[in-house]
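Internal tracking record. Fields below are filled automatically when a chain is submitted to the structure queue. Please do not edit lines marked as system-generated. If the sequence contains nonstandard residues, flag them in the REMARKS field before resubmitting.
Queue: standard
Priority: normal
Entity type: single polypeptide chain
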Amino acid sequence: MTKTIVAVDCVQCKETHHLTVGAADLANWDNGELIQNAMPYLTAGEREILISGVCETCFDNMFGGEEEDPIGDADTEYDIDFEEKKE
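SYSTEM-GENERATED OUTPUT FOLLOWS
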C-alpha cells in the first residue's frame, strides 16, 4: 500500500496535524466513500480533522467532549398515554 502524509491545520488552534493514510484510501474518500469505510484505521478525532478541519482537542472544547449515554437521553424519553378510540 502506498502511503501519504497529509498535513492539516486546525481551523481553531492553528496547530498542524500530520496523518499517514493510504493514497488509495484518500482517493476513495475524495470520490465519495464514507471516511470511516475508506480509512477505518484512523481514530474518530483524526477523521474529524480531515472532515471539518477541527482537531479532536478543539472539537471536545467546543462540544463538551461528553460521552453519549448508552441508555438514552432522559430529556427525550416521554411517557405517552394512548386512548382507545371507541366508535
